[in-house]
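Please complete every field before forwarding. Incomplete forms are returned to the sender.

SECTION A: IDENTIFIERS
Entry label: holo-406
Bound molecule: flavin-adenine dinucleotide
Molecule representation: SMILES string

SECTION B: INPUTS
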Amino acid sequence: MSTFSLDPGPDQLAVRDWLHGFAADVMRPAAAEWDEREETPWPVIQEAAKIGIYSLDFYAQQYFDPSGVGIPIAMEELFWGDAGLGLAIVGTTLAAVAVLANGTDEQIGTWAPQMFGTPDDVKVAAFCSSEPDAGSDVSALRTRAVYDEAKDEWVLNGTKTWATNGGIAAVHVVVATVDPALGARGQASFVVPPGTPGLSQGQKFKKHGIRASHTAEVVLDGVRIPGSCLLGGKEKLDERLARAREGTKRSGGKNAAMATFEASRPAVGAQAIGIARAAYEVALDYAKTRVQFGRPIIDNQGVAFQLADMKTRIDAARLLVWRASWMAANNQPFTSAEGSMSKLYAGETAKFVTAQAMQILGGNGFTREYPVERMHRDSAIYTIFEGTSEIQRLVIARAVSGMPIR
Ligand SMILES: Cc1cc2nc3c(=O)[nH]c(=O)nc-3n(C[C@H](O)[C@H](O)[C@H](O)COP(=O)(O)OP(=O)(O)OC[C@H]3O[C@@H](n4cnc5c(N)ncnc54)[C@H](O)[C@@H]3O)c2cc1C
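SECTION C: PREDICTED COMPLEX
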């Protein structure tokens, strides 16, 4: 087990500085344009790929860093640059984590590289769990996966919604129900390879924030995929379903979608911290230079105390995220839902800090002349996706009480 340290060490600090340079020099100047265009920023993703920031190798290196803080440091820096562009760059990793969490070594080796493509031919990937009638309630998924034994193929039918990179991805990871009677325990994850007939993009959503990140419906109409595309393999699934039918608890009640979300919550919290830190810095700078009543507005305790609260909450959120990331990297169980705690607090902090930053900038904060209104819009998703704040509270409350709180 690596010792928990607040000093990430020289290697991590070098990575942080390198990412900071990319965030400051490439992402920030492009942020407003892609927010307005509301399109996937392929040139920015390509640039990230050319220098190795958009690559399986880079994320795997950070993911397996024994300190546990490689991923949160990377996320914070990129999202400090810009959240919409940040999500366009890292959206693929949610699908990659689904394969890492549920796939065999062979499946990881086959699919993870195809999710990123190459610097000359970049690709993105999508993780499709949510459905119109199954958001927070993951057990209500209706997308069906039926096994065609004669052909050793799975047939997928259903409609997914709000999928980041949905329809534009090379590889889609789809969570579907194999046995609806078993609820969440009857689900499995499947890889839909590039170009598979029957998968199409439905509606593309126009959004309040993170507008450079593509969000769309994914329609699955008789999609046939090889048996080998079931993540984890058929034998493991059959064992798991048999245990669930017997009603034993050995599967821990976990399902495929939840395994992915648990692993990614601290990383999502770190993204929120990046947005909050960016807005705080703009506000601090502004408060020192904006003069009203003959003195900088920061001379008023009313403003200075707002900044004190903003900074305190950001640092507290980062400590929660780093703790959860360190625990995950060192196989410490989240006995008090520490992953959920980190995502809950970081998401709420991003909303709080960006709102305060707009207030400190006054009229300027409300216009697109300054970036804080975009940061405020971007922050709002952090109390919604990857489990809403209410669902995080539910998970934490259940973990600490041992009660089936609803
Ligand atoms: C921009 C964007 C990107 C996304 N990307 C992806 C993606 O890549 N892949 C994917 O699968 N999904 C994705 N999602 C979906 C996202 O995870 C869901 O929107 C989220 O889980 C919430 O589900 P819902 O929208 O159906 O809300 P609902 O579940 O309908 O919730 C509505 C409200 O009710 C509250 N609520 C619900 N149940 C309870 C309860 N038991 N107790 C207390 N309050 C409750 C919620 O907290 C919320 O406030 C994305 C969504 C957005 C907007």
